Amino acid sequence: EAAADPNGTSHVDPTAAIEPLEEAHALRPADLDCAALLSDAYLSAGRLEEAHDLLVRTIGTFKGRRARELSALYHRLARIAEVAGDRATELTHLTTALDMDAQNGVVASELAYLAMELGNLDVAQRALRQITMLKVPAPLPKAVAYQHLGEIARQQGDNRRAMMLLKRAIDDDPSLENARMLLDQLQAET
Prior knowledge:
Largest sheet: 2 strands, antiparallel
Order of helices and strands: EEHHHHHHHHHH
Radius of gyration: 21 Å
Structural class: mainly alpha
Strand order of the largest sheet: 1-2
């Protein structure tokens, strides 16, 4: 349902889609796209628990099998955890989403940033390495992924590897000033 405000713009009520999507889901409970859209509608309406339960039930129908299609559902579970403020669960769901679809650049980018924010360098490195191998560009450019990998290598005391990764970042994108400054600093230290 759209309602016009005094300026003439219309606003869509996110709850308006719930009933038709619930009916569609009842008719096709195995339809992953329908379940995903219904969970999005629940989330938009602030119904986190219903969104979560729907996704968990849908994933459960796969009986533990790994399938690329499930990546989108785990990504939505991560979004629910983010809204709920549960960063650890968000990290877990993003990791699983990337496990299910290693070519998902959006998930890899979100996972890399979250893992770096939480100080989980192993997960961050894994997500960043995945970005450097994607066939289709991710929201996080490959050059920036190499820069972050170089920064992590430096934090871990591996300056030789850090310099190699930073050089790769600059080769991919010469405008990365932070990578250039860090590389210059590392070269001055050796």
